[in-house]
Model the fold of this input.
Amino acid sequence: MAIRRSPDEPPPGDGSRSSGALVQLSRYGPIAGAYAVFQSLVGVLPSSFSADTARYALATCAGLAVGIIIWLSTLVRLRGNSPRTGRGAADDEPHPVPAFGPGRLAQLMDGSATALLHCRSAVDDPALGRLVGWPHFLEEGEEGQRATAISTAYGLHITLILDRTNGLLDPPALVDTLWRLRKSDGGWAARTGGVVSRPEVTALVLGALSQAGADPQRLREGLDVLEGMLVPGVDVEGMSRTYVVTAVIRGLLRAAPGSPSLGRLRDELVAGVVRDADHDDLLCWGYSLDTSSGPARQGPVSVAHTAHAVLALARLEKVLGVDDRARHAMEQGVTWLVRVGTFTHQTEHLRRLHPAHGADHLLVRHFTAALVAKALLGVEPMPAADPPADPADPALALVAQRRAHLAAAVSRVWELQQEGVWEWDDDRQRRPVWMTYQGLSVLAAHAVHSCGPQPHRPSA
Done:
């Protein structure tokens, strides 16, 4: 069974393998080039050329110049040619919406199911019993490493999206594994998080368990633990982060839409907005929700975190109803996302100190194109067809811009998959389970958004 394409047979238009080679060239090519030029000039310059000092000085300068040229040219190639690295030329050009066509999305989803089944691990843990699920990367599952709470929760979400007509992915076993992976304090943590449960991981797992129809009594017990983590002062560092607050909101909306914490979390998310002076003081979000500088402060901004916040506010509105301040911040966030227009991946390091257990670390990677697409799809339905052109109507112009940016985001998501699996674009070329969930959920939501008869256009 073919889970991954051969490295020497890349799919058309996919620069992942060449990008990896360019990354290595950017690291070692300049050094090799500079040394080669230095050695060559030392050997060919005449010995009468102002003694050895001058010869070595000239050779060194020439070598450095060549090294710098190689380094700069490699960076240009990386930024301009690879669809997997940051903001390049592709971000400035319109992306056509992927033509799913008959069977294309179904074929992709079949690839996702095949990869998940092939890479699922089943390990008999001496303390916890049989654990069926996924480690952080699919490659680790192939190696037989133990399942983690985060990846198994995302794998369960993927299983529900795929809606297989057979039980090969075994959702009951995944649910049982997640309960077995609970910490002694009743919640869940990342594999790098030690023994203390954390709200963002606990909310993720409870959200997946609730969607899979887990035992209501056990869910209530888990939710009580989660609510205890949300008490002000319990997790000061975590609850000051946009990512953590929005992750908790998403999990609570799935598992406990009547939670009294949701209204407070919405207020905290809105209070944490920043103004971007480079884009007409539009409201957006950064990594932190720090409000010590006053309301709507200026500070570092982030596309990924703005998308997280917009999506969370959109989902909250469907449950809690319209809040004017939240609606205003959400609409400004959407306009900011469209105006900025980038999809660069982002990485966030969350470090917490615990008086009894020391520090735990969480490295969060943000699949920005997927987050932006989810945010734009989640705010409110947009017409699938282009609105009538009317330069005098700014509302119609904004709808057209949003549709174009959604098309670009969805296209970027589609470009980054191979046979239904997504791969983080670093030099390790590993395939995290969470990234396949993000990509697959975007394409499924966009397919639902785009589904429907084309509007009838009477002939002239």
